[in-house]
Design goal:
CATH architecture of the largest domain in chain A: 3-Layer(aba) Sandwich
Oligomer: homodimer
Organism (chains A, B): Chelatococcus asaccharovorans
Largest sheet of chain A: 9 strands, mixed
Protein name (chains A, B): N-carbamoyl-L-amino-acid hydrolase
InterPro entries (chains A, B): Amidase_Cbmase, Bact_exopeptidase_dim_dom, Peptidase_M20
Family (chains A, B): Belongs to the peptidase M20 family.
Number of strands of chain A: 16
CATH class of the largest domain in chain A: Alpha Beta
Helix content of chain A: 25-40%
CATH superfamily of the largest domain in chain A: Zn peptidases
Number of domains of chain A: 2
GO molecular function (chains A, B): hydrolase activity, acting on carbon-nitrogen (but not peptide) bonds, in linear amidines; metal ion binding
Chain lengths: ~425, ~425
């Protein structure tokens, strides 16, 4: 049950929006986007801003060896593990104002709102900025959260190099964020990450809140069709082994399979290169990328098996060779039903229209979920556009998400009535 | 009816083959192909070889202002227009030993065979090397033959520049082939061009001779599909406007249309570029080439109309924009039925298995046909491969083609029995 003394508590929407616009200047681009690559000078400036703000409020600030920033507000019961909030401050090379940083600034807003209202929580609250979620300067992404849960070894993470050969370790030292805390040492009771949806569903259905209960499994392939080059004018259709036409059939098969596993299945071919690439030559080879995603392990497995069967069928029917090389995969992941239920309850109590949904993209929450009960809150972004300078979200939706975050962590941490 | 005194006349197959191998050294590549770009030093060398050979036999050699070489053997009746044979000596940048030059060397072989046998023809015979059939160094191709028939103005042709800015006129002077004869001044009664098929039909049907009765019309398009870029993980299939999937449907529609206009219709997409070309982004745009060819004007028109209808249907169904920009076309062309019948008769009389067929590619004969009764002889090439260093044909087939050429021009020019 919501607590009577906090039921009407709300974050300061104007202050949240002002913080979003202020931080968008750290790496701000002419087109209204943000270029704030991990551990760059722009990243240092936004980190310094966040730390200064935290210190001004008297919160404890810890930095771990991979540069994750922990901003902790104490609870009444120091024996309880903290309830975490957070996301990331880094962006894509031509990113937007909301991806990642919304979850961090909303967490800061939660802490400051509680201070102003004089509300103490039973468990401590901890706002986290995870290092290098994007993976744009240093690969792989979700580096700080993966190191936190122990999926990636600290030494390996520190040795990752950018295109200029600079390591993560060197970059951390250069901007003053090579901390001393051991990643994973700080235990959390739960984590809630607020993020823009980066997809069009909430907007299309006129909903404000997505309660993210799962993340889609992902299977990436490098594909190739090998047929036979021949003269476009002199080779009859019946004697062709046209790699491009076989590829076209494969593409439509992938689409058909994804559609058959509706509504959550997706299948995408983002890249294709046609050889030899001459107007008058029947293509002999097409190389392409293919990926499938689905949140349900059974559907996910069937999509992959169906694609293999289609590839074999098309190869045989057209006398071409089709290879699908599985280069990376992530199994479907379920977030904590308890944390998700808490989020749904917070949305319902605020009268905010919401739906359960799955995340199609990877997030720090996906990594953290393997060690900590975790779920996510999505808010709409315009036209589903993200990883783009045109990325856009409204003050109203950002504030609604921050309020759901506030009441979710209050429920998870517990509110004291002893004051 | 075949003339008794010439019915068993045959060219010297070994000499023809030896000439093919000798001339393949002018621009010969390590992989066994030939790089002999129009009006290059290699082209000069092969031209000089041909002219020296012609002069040694006492033939008249004329060079016109576009560099076409005419090698004429006199007839008994100087009032009759010459019967022409010929093709081209230039090659693609990585071409083979047979494309073009077979038709020139077979013509030389015809002249020398008649000399050795002491046979005179009523009409003169004229072997022609047409300048720049390939269009690889200077565009467009079939330049010498198009100037001959007046489709391309001489001054415009001489002003064409290669990638280094050298004009055709400068290149002709540099290799000593800027002649003085006016292109088109030398009239022909007929022309026969022997060429490798550059396609797989004769080989597939185990035939030796193709009697080429027509050349396919060609329609070239630059195509574009514009959809909407979106996130591959978060955009449901139902909300996508995927340019690549629309392109795949267009490709298969083009294939279906070409197949429906069997056996002569062909449709090819040789080039496609996908934007933005990121593994995790639903493509927003695909640019591609498309071409259709058919020898029959009615079918040719219907193919184009059907493709337009398919493009409109797919664009509407997928909420994308499809544009098909017609950048070049050539109407279907019928060769002379009389010249084709003469070729068929020559093949039949030699017991060579033949079929009528259409040319899918452009040739000098296509240009000349607008002014002179013309047809072509095709012989098989291995796997239909051409414009490739692996281009290959057999001594037996080359000789068969040259014998059909011999007896075709004897029939067209008439044989004298007064000696």
């Amino acid at each position: 049950m919501p607590d009577a003394s906090t039921a009407n508590l709300a974050i300061n929407a104007e202050r949240l929006w002002s913080n979003i616009m202020t931080t968008a200047a750290f790496g701000g681009t002419l087109k209204g986007g943000v270029r704030r690559l991990t551990l760059s000078e722009e990243d240092r400036r936004v980190r310094d801003w966040l730390v200064a703000r935290a210190q001004a409020s008297g919160y404890e600030v810890g930095i771990d060896r991979i540069g994750n920033i922990y901003i902790q507000r104490p609870g009444r019961d120091p024996g309880r593990a903290a309830v975490a909030m957070g996301s990331h401050l880094d962006t894509q090379p031509t990113g937007g104002k909301f991806d990642g940083i919304l979850g961090v600034l909303a967490g800061l807003e939660v802490l400051e709102t509680l201070d102003e209202a004089g509300i103490a929580t039973e468990a401590p609250l901890c706002l986290v900025n995870w290092t290098n979620e994007e993976g744009a300067r240093f690969a792989p992404g979700e580096l700080g959260s993966e190191v936190y849960v122990g999926h990636v070894a600290l030494e390996a993470a520190l040795a990752c190099r950018d295109a200029e050969g600079v390591t993560v370790g060197e970059a951390l030292s250069a901007i003053g964020y090579a901390g001393t805390e051991v990643p994973g040492a700080r235990r959390f009771a739960a984590m809630v990450e607020l993020h823009i949806e980066q997809g069009p569903l909430l907007e299309a259905e006129n909903l404000t809140i997505g309660v993210v209960t799962a993340a889609k499994g992902q299977q990436w392939y490098n594909g190739m069709v090998s047929g036979r080059e021949s003269h476009a004018g002199t080779t009859p259709m019946t004697l062709r082994r046209d790699a491009l036409m076989a590829f076209a059939e494969l593409a439509l098969a992938a689409e058909r399979i994804a559609r058959a596993h509706a509504p959550d299945g997706v299948g995408t071919i983002g890249m294709a290169e046609v050889s030899p690439g001459s107007r008058n030559t029947v293509p002999g080879e097409v190389r392409f990328s293919l990926e499938f995603r689905h949140p349900d392990p059974d559907h996910f497995g069937r999509m992959r098996a169906e694609m293999r069967a289609e590839a074999e069928r098309i190869a045989a029917a057209r006398d071409v060779t089709v290879t699908l090389d599985p280069i990376w995969s992530m199994e479907p992941l379920s977030f904590s039903p308890d944390v998700a239920a808490t989020i749904a309850q917070a949305a319902a109590a605020r009268g905010l229209p919401y739906r359960e949904m799955t995340s199609g993209a990877g997030h720090d929450a996906c990594a953290v979920a393997s060690a900590v009960p975790t779920a996510m809150i999505f808010v709409p972004c315009k036209d589903g556009i993200s990883h783009n300078e045109a990325e856009s979200a409204t003050l109203k939706d950002c504030a609604a998400g921050a309020n759901v975050l506030l009441h979710s962590v209050l429920a998870l941490a517990g509110v004291s009535h002893h004051d």
